[in-house]
Design the sequence.
């Protein structure tokens, strides 16, 4: 059956246009400008800071920094070798202590712990609070319990355990977020096939959460690498040798930078700026490794 | 509007399902002969006469899952009350009913997926081949391996097609001669092999929704379950993908006992041998809860239900 319809008449003329634009409202524009402004504050500060440090340290940014040991009497030949190696040692072990512990704690809280139990809630609140505790307090903890209590002294071991405790809450919180973001349907699908809970966590949840966990690890270690306060509290100071083991005394870049900035001679200010650039380079390369890991695991699917 | 138009479809489907039933009755006769000979003459009569309205196929069918007085609680709230059901071997049973009537909740009791909800609690019994699924010494892992599940939304793992299928045998620690063969067989049974055989190493997430759901069915088959639970398996699929899944269900029914929850009454009429109708009711204290109204041959439920509530739902008066 075909229905023949009469052709439509042209639309009746309008008194005023229905679709006329009145321009973007002031509020919309104001809000957009506010967003731009806030972003610019962060960005400009960062650029100014980087430029300042770079320009100030430029005259000393050479291989002497890496090849020479620090000196408090000869700024023209002083380097930061012991501080660089110290930081590398420190970061390696901080990561080694904090990442597995933090990730496993996050797995417990997300996958195993019953969130309604008071002790799990207590742990959760504690972790959130710990993330906000000033780092100097962790320094006191490290000094009292690890350095003196356990008798480890101002060594790599003490330093890395202290920093690991400091960043542990960050690792836990970030890992929990990443684990929580894995869809529940994945877990259900795995369990419905007769997989155990651990198999489900290990083979499905963790691989899917790795990108998020890697991001958390970057944040945590970035915080640890720049910490001077807890290390100063532990009594980490000026040393002119590279660490040779966990029980070795050491110095780290933030501590070295701090001690140079307290020197009166301007050459040391330059050295501090140059060492800051080295610290930034270390930080960036650490982050790029983590980003590489994240992208590699993400790219698979 | 849709109901009068669709009235032919249940009867058309039931003739299909009758012939399907007949074949399966013949198959199960061999087994039944040794264990329950007294039922034999009746069932032979049913098979030869092709009578669809009589309920006498029951005697032959071995019950795979049986519930007695099954109630499910969420905290102190009794969501589903006193459900008695029997699911026959190699049958497709559909569970239909309005939203919130507890059909999915009941389905999730059969493989103990309700255990994952901390507040959920089950009373009464769920028997699998005569063994209480909720007994203390029962291994939940074994229950879930034998009673597989396909979910409402296709949920392939973010892995390759191959690894999706191989996952079940792997986590169950099977020593298989050739995982390739296991994967091929499962995909073939799920009518997906021809579509994916050249891209087994590609991500399962790249498949279409219907293919993903068939992959989930294949994944389920790969661990050689006995029962397959399907929780609205076509809810997120288009009609063509839906019809493929339905064809697949009818094929699989020769080897598996299938229980399907569906919102789509036509689907229940098309694929199932038996249909259970659930409804949500409000008791004297004003508490809304799910109940089983009746469970019968699909043909009977859709043409001549015993309960007026079923009739009301089927004919679109509520729900």
Sequence:
């Amino acid at each position: 059956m075909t229905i023949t319809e009469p052709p439509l008449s042209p639309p009746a003329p309008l008194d005023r246009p229905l679709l006329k634009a009145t321009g973007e409202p002031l509020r919309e524009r104001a809000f957009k400008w506010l967003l731009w402004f806030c972003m610019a504050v962060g960005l400009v500060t960062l650029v100014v800071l980087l430029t300042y440090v770079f320009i100030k340290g430029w005259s000393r940014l050479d291989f002497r920094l890496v090849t020479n040991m620090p000196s408090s009497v000869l700024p023209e030949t002083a380097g930061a070798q012991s501080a660089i190696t110290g930081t590398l040692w420190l970061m390696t072990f901080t990561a080694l202590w904090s990442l597995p512990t933090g990730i496993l704690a996050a797995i417990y809280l997300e996958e195993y712990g019953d969130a309604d139990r008071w002790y799990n809630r207590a742990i959760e609140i504690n972790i959130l609070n710990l993330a906000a505790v000033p780092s100097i307090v962790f320094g006191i903890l490290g000094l009292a319990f690890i350095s003196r209590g356990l008798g480890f002294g101002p060594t790599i071991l003490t330093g890395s355990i202290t920093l690991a405790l400091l960043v542990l809450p960050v690792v836990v919180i970030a890992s929990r977020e990443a684990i929580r973001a894995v869809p529940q349907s994945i877990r259900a699908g795995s369990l419905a096939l007769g997989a155990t809970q651990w198999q489900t966590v290990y083979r499905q949840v963790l691989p899917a959460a790795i990108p998020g966990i890697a991001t958390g690890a970057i944040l945590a270690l970035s915080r640890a690498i720049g910490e001077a306060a807890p290390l100063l509290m532990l009594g980490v100071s000026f040393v002119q040798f590279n660490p040779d083991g966990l029980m070795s005394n050491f110095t780290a870049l933030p501590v070295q930078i701090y001690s140079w900035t307290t020197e009166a001679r301007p050459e040391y200010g330059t050295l501090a700026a140059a060492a800051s650039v080295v610290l930034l380079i270390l930080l960036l390369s650490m982050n790029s490794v983590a980003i590489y890991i994240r992208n590699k695991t993400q790219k698979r699917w | 509007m849709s109901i009068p138009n669709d009235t032919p479809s249940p009867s058309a489907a039931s003739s299909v399902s009758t012939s399907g039933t007949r074949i399966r009755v013949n198959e199960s006769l061999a087994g039944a002969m040794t264990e329950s000979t007294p039922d034999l003459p009746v069932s032979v009569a049913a098979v030869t006469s092709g009578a669809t309205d009589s309920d006498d196929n029951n005697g032959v069918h071995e019950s795979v899952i049986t519930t007695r007085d099954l109630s499910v609680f969420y905290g102190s709230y009794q969501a589903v009350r006193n459900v008695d059901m029997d699911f026959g071997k190699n049958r497709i049973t559909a569970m239909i009913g309005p939203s919130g009537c507890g059909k999915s909740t009941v389905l999730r009791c059969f493989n103990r997926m309700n255990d994952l909800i901390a507040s959920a609690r089950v009373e009464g019994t769920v028997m699998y081949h005569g063994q209480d699924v909720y007994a203390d010494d029962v291994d939940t892992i074994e229950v879930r391996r034998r009673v597989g599940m396909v979910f409402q939304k296709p949920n392939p793992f973010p892995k390759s097609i191959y690894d999706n299928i191989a996952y079940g045998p792997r986590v169950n620690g099977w020593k298989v001669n050739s995982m390739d063969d296991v994967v091929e067989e499962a995909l073939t049974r799920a009518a997906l092999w021809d579509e994916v055989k050249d891209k087994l190493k590609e991500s399962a997430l790249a498949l279409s929704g219907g293919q993903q759901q068939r992959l989930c069915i294949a994944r389920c088959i790969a661990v050689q379950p006995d029962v397959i639970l399907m929780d609205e398996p076509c809810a997120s699929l288009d009609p063509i993908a839906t019809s493929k899944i339905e064809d697949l269900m009818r094929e699989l029914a020769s080897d598996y006992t299938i229980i399907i929850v569906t919102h789509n009454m036509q689907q229940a009429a098309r694929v199932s041998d038996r249909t259970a109708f659930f409804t949500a009711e409000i008791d004297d204290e004003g508490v809304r809860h799910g109940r089983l109204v009746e469970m019968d041959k699909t043909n009977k439920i859709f043409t001549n239900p015993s309960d007026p509530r079923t009739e009301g739902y089927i004919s679109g008066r509520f729900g």
About this structure: Chain A touches chain B at residues 114, 116, 183, 185-196, 199, 203-204, 207-208, 301 (CB under 8 Å). Chain A has a mean pLDDT of 89.
